[in-house]
TrEMBL record:
<dbReference type="GO" id="GO:0008236">
    <property type="term" value="F:serine-type peptidase activity"/>
</dbReference>
<dbReference type="Pfam" id="PF13180">
    <property type="entry name" value="PDZ_2"/>
</dbReference>
<keyword id="KW-0720">Serine protease</keyword>
<dbReference type="InterPro" id="IPR036034">
    <property type="entry name" value="PDZ_sf"/>
</dbReference>
<dbReference type="Pfam" id="PF03572">
    <property type="entry name" value="Peptidase_S41"/>
</dbReference>
<keyword id="KW-0378">Hydrolase</keyword>
<keyword id="KW-0472">Membrane</keyword>
<dbReference type="GO" id="GO:0007165">
    <property type="term" value="P:signal transduction"/>
</dbReference>
<dbReference type="InterPro" id="IPR029045">
    <property type="entry name" value="ClpP/crotonase-like_dom_sf"/>
</dbReference>
<dbReference type="GO" id="GO:0004175">
    <property type="term" value="F:endopeptidase activity"/>
</dbReference>
<protein>
    <submittedName>
        <fullName>Carboxyl-terminal processing protease</fullName>
    </submittedName>
</protein>
<comment type="similarity">
    <text>Belongs to the peptidase S41A family.</text>
</comment>
<dbReference type="InterPro" id="IPR005151">
    <property type="entry name" value="Tail-specific_protease"/>
</dbReference>
<feature type="transmembrane region" description="Helical">
    <location>
        <begin position="6"/>
        <end position="27"/>
    </location>
</feature>
<dbReference type="Pfam" id="PF22694">
    <property type="entry name" value="CtpB_N-like"/>
</dbReference>
<dbReference type="InterPro" id="IPR001478">
    <property type="entry name" value="PDZ"/>
</dbReference>
<keyword id="KW-0645">Protease</keyword>
Amino acid sequence: MKVDKVYFPLLIFTAIAVGFLLGGIFVRIPVSAKLNTENQSKQKLNKLIDFINDEYVDNVNTDSIVDQTVNGILGKLDPHSVYIAKNEAQGVAESMKGDFVGIGVNFFVDNDTVAVIKPVEGGPSEKAGIKAGDRILSANNEKLFGKKITTEKLYSKLKGEPNSEVILSIFRKSTNKKFNLKVIRNVIPLKSVDIAIMLNKKTGYIKVNRFSETTYKEFKVGLNKLVKQGANSLVIDLRDNGGGYLDQAVSIADEFLKDKKLIVFTKNKKKRIDKTFATSDGVFENGKVTLLINENSASASEILAGAIQDNDRGLVVGRRSFGKGLVQREMPFQDGSTVRLTVARYYTPTGRSIQKSYKEGSEEYLNEFMNRYKNGELYAKDSIKIADTLKFKTPKGRIVYGGGGIVPDVFVPLESTKGNEVIPMIMQSGLVSNFVFKELDRHRNQFSNLNFAQIITKIEGSDLYYNQFKKMIELNDSFIDLDSSKNYIKRYIAAEFCRQLLGESQYYQVVLKDDVMIKEALKN
């Protein structure tokens, strides 16, 4: 079974790819870009590049050679010391900054054409009149369709300076008309907090997808809103959160921990230990706190989970986290590329290092999910392999474990899909979004006046859309058994219809209603 057969390219303009972020936690400390050229090894590398430039028989792109060399060197260190080439650095930086300047649309490329899934609410495109389903054909008379169009070109033409204008050529399928629109570019937020809603009269829910520069600010706004709505219990969802800035996780932890409680400490090569403590400023120091984690919750997520768990402040619910206890510092090169170099290890308040082994190499390290699946760990807590020597005790005497991730207090197996671990991945991939957009594109008028309840009834009340989705999957891979998970699949299809037609809040209302981890969190 090849999962990649069922992948369709999905480009979300308001969510730059953050593949570099998985398991990444880094600190922002100014560093000198000056190189010590007196070192003989460095001189040798520089001389070799000069020899190739001056004497090699063919013309060679030495920038590419340098990039390969840097990647090779970092590959010998650890899986989280990474090089980010200059053509990728801007997108990664924007993702971590929390915003960019552009036109504000969610889109994907459909048949070599930019198709608008939805304009960002209140953004430049919505203000200019762009609607879901519109095709963007050109920007300032430069064609943006065809087989040769690249992601880089799309971004370069749709992004720009604040208050700069771009003339877009639009084709609106619903009216079969082509026309031009002037859009004034502006700052578009890249949300790291997806939603903050009430699960019931007393329990709030906040979903954090990564830890960017704006995460704490976004989190605090959501937390204050929920407190005003009467929340005295809070569920923080860190599932599939690959990490980010350490200081953002620390600031969030401070909202729940009393003054002078240890949040985290780091230790560098020179054995220097830096401890970070909570302050007296937390707004939720007494309410009930539950954190949700899974095998893709990493680094900053693990710092937050470890701080809550080790201080006996709340429960961690879910499955063992990724297991990343290294800290990176971002170091820029003059050409715009950067390197994230591991400079320290971090430890939870009880003294745990939760870093898993990477002795078998980066590929094995990053693909450990399949080993957990084969070992049965995703379905049974008893299958989690942890050495007795890595036991630690919290102040209240609870046993917690180091070495290989945060082990939850309450284990929740992978949601039952009859042993087919691929289905949850498919449901949370771009496949569902792609499918729903195309269905709406063909029949948007059938949904134009439907409210939330009517949309749910329309999608879940019959097998029409499930059968259409199943047909799409089976065209690419006939070995996936979807029927055994029909209700699970229909839930995600209905949720995606709600997201594209109504918004994020309605999407989460659907997916959380029958979420097994949410049910477990509400029980404890």
